[in-house]
Design a protein that fits this description.
Radius of gyration of chain B: 23 Å
CATH topology of one domain in chain A: Ubiquitin-like (UB roll)
Radius of gyration of chain A: 20 Å
Strand content of chain A: 5-15%
Number of domains of chain B: 3
Largest sheet of chain A: 5 strands, mixed
Helix content of chain B: 10-25%
Strand order of the largest sheet of chain A: 2-1-5-3-4
CATH architecture of one domain in chain A: Roll
Oligomer: heterodimer
Number of strands of chain A: 7
Largest sheet of chain B: 6 strands, antiparallel
Distance between the termini of chain A: 57 Å
Structural class of chain B: alpha+beta
Strand content of chain B: 15-25%
Largest interface: A-B, 13 and 12 residues
Chain lengths: 225, 296
């Protein structure tokens, strides 16, 4: 067992436990975007930042990838941590404003304005979809491509993958695109419910402007009535 | 008769449909024993085709058992690898800080105008690929342009057209007149001391050196460039790569014996006296470029 202090509380955790797991076990909330139980930690979103060590040598580390160390002093909600988290959220919001998950997190952290140039990306490169495809679905259909500002996630050569089973897990875990309905790209569509209704629930032209999510699906809502 | 050159052959431009999976399998065979070496495999494929064709990557994925995603990820990550076909010649303009302040941006624009493409693209006739690079480490010489591995310093807008013309002609052709490392040698037979020089057959602008070669019950002449530093040869029969041949004097018909072994491929090295004193040893293996000149 490893003894450490989290927010002044002495705890003992098993060897190999990450700071995130330890803190969550104790009930300290740490927001995350790229973390998911059952997938290898990746440390991409940096939201799980905590402060370790003592001033003046205290430093910020991502708790999801940092293993518990003997005698470590961890602060999960120090002002420095909150400041860093707010900055990260503000930046995420600037790149992916449509994401409900990011909007909710930003709101919970009291972000009322956003100082950066607005972009409309639909990916924060958190790698959740890549990891679930490889580690849980055993498919490895998508991956990271290129690097730097050109880094993107997708299939090799942007071609339809031979190993993809259209399971939809990548869309299920995504914090940015969240089960975006793919009706406008029929060859990629997973459900196609709305397209199969007569008359179709929405026209294609309108669809492009609508923020349609698969859960709840408009088509499903219509069916219920 | 086969005219053979030691010039880097960049004329091998393959279209997607010309790719032979046998070639790729041969490359994979070499690396079959080690699990690593993906970058080495991709490097070899790229050196063969000039880029990484999709079919080649799919074959690599099937054969090595690695997922296509990983292979594509590596290929897309490194700037050295290209997924698009490249041109015969590569023009690379340095845009580092030093080159930039001396007007490298203008040089790039001139290249773009002359070629009708933007940086990173290849001309339609697949003659030129234009690239920019962030520093070549030759900042004092800026703006620096590299064409097919040849560096040009203090390039100005007005020089671009000339550089492109030079590139089109082929910079890899040896400039015999100007290169001091290249000079003609006259070689004699160690037995009868008669010169191999053949005034009737010119290679690289100088009389060639004629000898006979024997291999596999076949005999024929070989004419080698007399320039030390040039590997251009003409042969009567095609000699397969890596084959060791024995040389026979065309005057006294005696075989010239190998006296030492090549430090690179362990084939016999054949010594011959050089006019003006000293001797030259050449490796008898086809394709091996090991030569030693001892001037007295």
């Amino acid at each position: 067992m490893i003894n450490l202090t989290i927010n002044g509380l002495h705890v003992a955790v098993e060897k190999g436990t990450t700071l995130l797991e330890a803190a969550r076990f104790l009930g300290f909330p740490i927001p995350t975007l790229c973390h998911m139980e059952g997938l290898s930690p990746y440390g991409a979103c940096r939201l799980c930042m905590v402060e370790i060590g003592e001033a003046p040598r205290a430093k910020l580390v991502s708790s999801c990838t940092y293993p518990a160390e003997e005698g470590l002093k961890v602060r999960t909600t120090s002002s420095r941590v909150l400041r860093a988290r707010r900055m990260i959220l503000e930046l995420l919001l600037a790149s992916c404003p449509q994401s409900k998950t990011i909007q909710d997190l930003a709101s919970a952290h009291g972000i009322r304005r956003q100082r950066f140039r607005q972009e409309y990306e639909d990916c924060i490169l958190c790698g959740l979809c890549v990891r679930i495809c490889e580690e849980q679905m055993m498919a490895k259909a998508i991956g990271f491509r290129s690097r730097g500002e050109n880094r993107s996630i997708g299939t090799p050569f942007d071609a339809k993958s031979d190993v993809c089973r259209l399971c939809g897990a990548c869309m299920y875990v995504c914090p940015a695109c969240q089960l975006r309905c793919t009706y406008n790209e029929p060859e990629k569509a997973i459900c196609g419910g709305c397209a199969n209704l007569t008359p179709p629930c929405i026209e294609k032209e309108q669809f492009d402007d609508m923020m349609c999510y698969m859960d709840p699906c408009v088509a499903c809502e219509i069916k219920k009535d | 008769m086969k005219q053979d050159t030691a010039i880097l052959n960049r004329d091998n431009l393959y279209a997607e449909e010309e790719i032979d999976s046998k070639d790729i399998l041969r490359i994979l065979e070499k690396y079959a024993r080690s699990r690593g070496g993906l970058v080495a495999i991709l490097e070899e494929i790229q050196s063969k085709y000039g880029y990484l064709p999709e079919t080649a990557l799919r074959t690599v994925s099937e054969r090595t058992g690695r997922s296509l995603v990983d292979i594509y990820g590596v290929a897309a990550f490194y700037r050295f690898f290209s997924l698009k076909p490249k041109g015969k010649h590569l023009a690379c303009v340095c845009l580092g800080t030093a080159c930039h302040v001396r007007g490298a941006q203008e040089v790039v624009e001139e290249f773009e105008q002359q070629l009708g493409i933007t940086a990173g693209q290849t001309t339609e006739d697949r003659e030129f690929t234009l690239e920019t690079v962030n520093c070549l480490g030759a900042c004092a010489l800026g703006p620096v342009v590299v064409i097919d591995g040849h560096y040009f310093s203090k390039v100005e807008r007005s020089k671009v057209k000339q550089l492109l013309d030079q590139g089109r002609k082929g910079l890899d052709k040896l400039d015999i007149e100007k290169d001091e490392r290249i000079f003609p040698v006259d070689v004699r037979c160690p037995h009868c001391n008669q010169s191999f020089k053949d005034e009737t057959f010119i290679i690289d602008g100088y009389p060639s050196l004629k000898a006979n070669v024997a291999m596999d019950h076949k005999q024929g002449w070989i004419r080698m460039s007399s320039l030390y530093g040039s590997y251009n040869v003409c042969t009567e029969h095609e000699i397969p790569e890596d084959m060791i041949v024995s040389f026979i004097c065309p005057h006294c018909d005696s075989e010239i014996p190998g006296t030492s072994t090549c430090s690179e491929c362990e084939a016999p090295m054949m010594p011959m006296p050089v006019d003006g004193g000293g001797r030259i040893k050449i490796c008898t293996r086809r394709g091996c470029k090991n030569r030693m000149l001892d001037l007295v």
